[in-house]
Hints:
It is built from 4 helices and 5 strands. Helices cover 29% and strands 30% of the residues.
Amino acid sequence: MSGLSHFDASGAAVMVDVGAKPETAREAVATASVVMQKATLRMILDGTARKGDVLGVARLAGIMAAKRTAELIPLCHPLPLTAVALDLAAAGEDRVAITATVRTTGRTGVEMEALTAASVAALTVYDMCKAVDRGMRIEGVRLLAKSGGKSGSFRQD
Length: 157
């Protein structure tokens, strides 16, 4: 099946056996952004959203999501994460930029955990503000960088 590791010879989906791989320090950084009306961003930054501290709640949601990635993505391994950090900040006048950084020492990488954290944080911003701005858009969910493991480092240009 095109050399993809999550399929066996018959094409059935399988969880990759990482038991023989050495444990290494691994890190992944992912990003997302939520585009909104200028007034919505002002409301978030002023702390006047009816549902509360939008950025604080989204940060916690992203951390929780990273820890539960293996429950959401069928072939992901459950990993003992050593750190999860989310940065949420205004980017210009109409968006919240989200950066998720996840670390572990293990046999497989944390790219999916970082992507899940950024995505769920963005969804939480949307959920908390949808009553005032249904036109928000979640954009640019992508891996920025990863390090560790056999495949080495990757950095998005």
